[in-house]
Amino acid sequence: MKKILKWISILLFALLLTNLPPFFSHSTIYDISDNLRIVKIPPLEQRILSQMSLEQKIGQLFVFGFNGTSINKNITQLIQNQYIGGVLLLEPNIENNNQLSNLLSDIQNISYIPLLVCIDQEGGIVARLSGDKILTKAQKDMKNEQEAYTISNQRGEILSSLGINTNLAPVVEYITSSKSFMYQRVFRGTKEEVALKSKAAIQGYIDSGIVSVAKHYPGHSNSSPDSHYSLPKVNITTQQWDEYIFPFKYLVEEKIPDVIMVGHILYPNIDSKPSTISSEIIQKRLRQDLGYSGVIITDDMEMDSIEKVGEYNQIAKEALLAGVDILLYSGIPNVQRDVYQYIFESTSNGEIAESIINEKVLRILSLKIKYGLIDSSILQPQEEEEVLSEWQRALL
Question: Does residue 24 or residue 216 have the better pLDDT?
């Protein structure tokens, strides 16, 4: 009788195997026939990672912009040959809703692993899509948490209907001076009010199925120059750090952001390196001190502020080693191809440990699974059969 029960349990698990919902990807199997032995089921992201080539892993670390309103040779090659993890939409990619929906459908159809489709739709002066106030209302005009939630939730539904799954918003920095280049892009109020509105906005996006990106950690100051053109310098001390990053600290403690964007900002009293390539600021202060375990993405790596710091391939490697998971490049094809190849070669020759790459890819895959971009259908059947055989041996 015990053997019959064992084989029944194995057959049941075999039937479930091809369509395991996300819940079971982190669950356990119980051998009901003999002393409740437990066999761990590998998480779905781990099972996917085990099937990926190094080229595919490296590709997931990149989000690339591209030219044109339709799919072209360059973006096709980047998706199919470099296996990039996402694309960035800019105004030149957008003519109208039908065109955009078709473009994004075409792009997803040629990608083995579904892409993060990213857009800067903060509202106000940073809005790639035009339309009614749901799409264009600025953060500065959102009077309370409820409004921040409602606008973000409804905006997320519109983005999702077009095939966009990631919004590079909201800006959660605390800026109070009208002279700041960031002033028109941030929530108004005290630090606490900014933090609460930010949380509400992120929750609104989450509830609409959109990946939200809190930016730009650790934050610009009131006197920072525009980081698109020059590297801002913020002279705060270590003693001032926690108060300075309050909105980010609050959000991480509330465990709400799935993605944080790191800005190109220098804090000379904290580290000699800009935040994008600072292990002190990313790995120690964000990961270790605050306990943040989500995805970290850079601001555009083609901005003058970071390009002037050093050679772009080396800067990309330093950013990854400092703790960044995703590198964002807005659209220079030769830079995109070169930096991908450089990171691939740096990993192949051991300058970047593959274990580090694996950690980053697992975070990215987990994010895509959480938002329903990936399910178990992406797995190769042969690999799943091998996993099942291991479970069978453990049960027997």
Answer: 216
Strands 211-217 and 259-262: what pairing? parallel
Asked if residue 366 lies in contact with residue 373, where contact means CB atoms within 8 angstroms, the answer is: no
What's the rounded mean pLDDT across residues 193-210? 98
Q: Round the average pLDDT of the chain to a whole number and report it.
A: 90
Residue 117 has phi, psi (to 5 degrees) of -100, 105
The tokens for 286 are 């964000």
Distance of CA 376 to the CA centre of its chain: 20
| Nearest of 29, 17, 26, 16 to residue 46 by alpha carbon | 26
Q: Is the pLDDT of residue 393 over 60?
A: no
Dihedral angle computed from the Cα positions of residues 273, 55, 361 and 312, in that order, rounded to the nearest 10 degrees: 20
Token readout for 300 is 């555009």
Cβ-contact 202, 257 below 8 angstroms: yes
Are the beta carbons of 89 and 113 closer than 8 angstroms? no
Q: How confident is the model at residue 4 (pLDDT cuts 50, 70, 90)?
A: very low
272-331: per-residue pLDDT in tens?
Answer: 999 999 999 999 999 999 999 999 999 999 999 998 899 999 999 999 999 999 999 998
Domain made up of 53-374: CATH architecture = Alpha-Beta Barrel (3.20)
Quote the CA–CA distance of 394 and 82 in Å, as a whole number. 38
The phi and psi torsions of 91 (rounded to 5 degrees) equal -55, -40
> Where in the chain are the domains?
2-42+381-395, 53-374
Q: Is the peptide bond before 218 cis (omega within 30 degrees of 0)?
A: yes
